[in-house]
From TrEMBL:
InterPro entries: MPAB/Lcp_cat_dom. Residues 14-248 form the ER-bound oxygenase mpaB/mpaB'/Rubber oxygenase catalytic domain. It holds the Pfam family MPAB_Lcp_cat. It comes from Actinomadura fulvescens. This is Oxygenase MpaB family protein.
Amino acid sequence: MPTTATIGPGSLLWRYASDLRSLMPGAAAGLMQLMHPGIGAGVAEHSAFFDAPFDRIYRSVPQIWATILAPDAGTRGLAIRDLHRGIGGTDEQARRYHALEPETFWWAHATFTWEIFKAAELFHPERLSADDHELLYAETVTWYTRYGVSMRPVPADYAAFQSKFWHICAKELELTPAAARALDIAKHGSDTISLVPARGAVFDRASRLVAEKPMRLVTFGCLPSIVRERFDIQWSPTDQVRFAAIALANRQGYRMMPTRLNHWTLRNTLRYIGSQTREHRYQPPPRDQLSA
């Protein structure tokens, strides 16, 4: 059984998840989720992903971050689990899948665990010690317990987590139709899709012009190198230099931002996104239909 540790305002997980920089590897994490056969199939079949690829992110991230930061985090986790009860079916290769299959559900959480560690590694000036890595990982295990699902897939410690994570990246991820769509948008952008859940042609166009190139660099720069190599994602030495400059700017620039302002901005950003997407969240079928 993996070790757990308390999550609260003084914990490492709380500290990093409360920081705006925790969201920066999020697009890479989302792409790796879509590369998982079960998750990719579930997103393609049970959402309007191909019409609005980023809407799933807008709907999901505020709810998932609430399972760390909200006073009723445990209740929020169980609600997220229950949203997935009816998500299942057969993918394009005739393979059965279900969102609550233990390895499938854990992989989604694993990418968020990876996201927290990646943000700390790339965008924060301080470095985690070996003990910090173990403590932060134990806190992410506590985070996972809040979903009330099987703990069987959860690695025992940080080293085991790294080993399993890299194995899945190297051997099990694939270019699902949903991942192919997301990858194409990340590579080439889109004239019709905005990165923020706002309305208005002028605002949407401005957001694309400002965010498109940096978003590509951050998405592909954060991806594990094995994922870039397996899926032929071009990444040049110039890209690496530009990405390193973005990471350095974040490590240094946030020194000038008061911590309270940083946390206030993240919380209010998540609240805003949540308020804009609440009416469009996935609604599971009634339980009597699930058991029919």
